[in-house]
Amino acid sequence: MGLLDILTSIKDRAEKFLNEKNVVTDFLGKVEEKTGIKKKILAFGAVSVTGLYLVYGYGASLLCNLIGFVYPAYYSIKAIESPSKEDDTKWLTYWVVYGVFSLGEFFSDIFLYWFPFYYAFKCLFLLWCMAPMSWNGSQVIYNKVVRPVFLRHEATVDNMVSNLSGKAMSAAENLTREVLSNLVKNKALVTPVSPVAQSEAKSLPSSSTAASSSKTAPSQPSDERPVRICHD
């Protein structure tokens, strides 16, 4: 496939997208009604302005990430809803490559950030990965890089994931068991006394209280008087 065929394929894809019923085409249709400018020219102008903004504008990183996410996410949802599985594989491949690229960018962004026109090249790379052709970037990178590395280390990764999942389940079970035992112990320590037992304890005086009351009680004077004996 030559360069002319690639450009023709991209043009056909763009025209098909502009003829579909979606949010973008609805917006372009309203602008066309008010201004009289055709949707194709409006779309070309929007693409040109976006390219210039990626080179000179502020917040180019956010715009670039939106371009690499919104369009593929839209067609991924359509692929899920369609009965065909070929488009599912296509967009799954794109998301795998996108994830690998994002992971590598996380560690190298501090250096690539100062590279001139970095976000413009990044946007072109993402557009190549989602391009409607058989040898787009996602297919090439997956078949040449991701798939060989995955097949080489698949068994090791599976064993590692299995061991980690087993250890995680064991740790979760031990933690749950320990928490439950602590809850049971705390509940036993703070169990309140029933009201009936409290009333019975109040009605029965203790032996020490009775003894102290007997010691402190004053002695009562005797009413008996001495008998006087008279002698005749």
UniProtKB/TrEMBL annotation:
This is Receptor expression-enhancing protein. Keywords: Cytoplasmic vesicle, Endoplasmic reticulum, Membrane, Transmembrane, Transmembrane helix. It is found in: Cytoplasmic vesicle, Clathrin-coated vesicle membrane; Endoplasmic reticulum membrane; Membrane. Residues 201-221 have a biased composition (Low complexity). The lineage of its organism: Eukaryota, Metazoa, Chordata, Craniata, Vertebrata. Residues 194-232 are annotated as: Disordered. Residues 222-232 have a biased composition (Basic and acidic residues). The keyword Cell inner membrane does not apply. It comes from the Eukaryota. It comes from Lates calcarifer. The gene is REEP6. GO terms for cellular component: clathrin-coated vesicle membrane; endoplasmic reticulum membrane. It is a multi-pass membrane protein. The chain crosses the membrane at residues 41-71, 91-115. Belongs to the DP1 family. InterPro entries: TB2_DP1_HVA22.
